[in-house]
Structure formats: C-alpha cells, structure tokens
C-alpha cells in the first residue's frame, strides 16, 4: 500500500492539494544513534523499529 491508497492520509490531504509542510525528515543514523533497535510509543502502544542484518527496517507492534 502506498500513501495514495491509505484512507487516513487521503482524508488529511485531499486529491490535488499539495501539503504546505512536507513531512519532517530524520536520518536513520540520527534516529537509531548507534543502536539496532528502538521503541516508539504511540497512543499507549509500543512499537519496535529495528534494522535487520540486510540493513532493512522492520516495524513490529
């Protein structure tokens, strides 16, 4: 699924309207700060974001 297919994102940015403020860009190097895994708390839930052996990102609830 891409952003255009996500109904939550479509509601925030109707077709034909460009966002005035592009999403904030954070480098993985800055985000992970030398670690291979971080935890992200969102609405009371904890998600784990990790870098795999093949240098891909995996997000798990």
Describe the protein's architecture and organization.
The chain is an alpha+beta fold and 61 residues long. It has a domain at 26-61: Ribbon (Complement Module, domain 1), CATH 2.10.70. The protein is 18% helix and 28% strand. It has two helices and three strands; from the N terminus they run H-H-E-E-E. It has helices spanning 7-12, 28-32, and strands at 37-42, 45-51, 57-60. It has a three-stranded antiparallel beta sheet with strand order 1-2-3, with no helix packed on it. A hairpin with a 5-residue loop joins strand 2 (45-51) and strand 3. It is extended. The mean pLDDT is 86.
Sum up the structure in keywords.
three-stranded antiparallel beta sheet; extended; single chain; alpha+beta; 61 residues
Unreliable spans: none
CATH class of the domain at 26-61: Mainly Beta
Q: How are the strands of the biggest sheet laid out side by side?
A: 1-2-3
Number of helices: 2
Distance between the termini: 18 Å
Shape: extended
How does CATH name the architecture of the domain at 26-61?
A: Ribbon
Main sheet properties: 3 strands, antiparallel
> Strand content of the residues, in percent?
25-35%
Mean of all residue-level pLDDT scores: 86
* Structural class determined from secondary elements: alpha+beta
Order of helices and strands: HHEEE
What's the CATH superfamily of the domain at 26-61, by name? Complement Module, domain 1
What is the β-strand count? 3
Q: How large, in whole angstroms, is the Cα Rg?
A: 15 Å
- Fraction of residues in helices? 10-25%
Query: CATH topology of the domain at 26-61, which one?
Result: Complement Module, domain 1
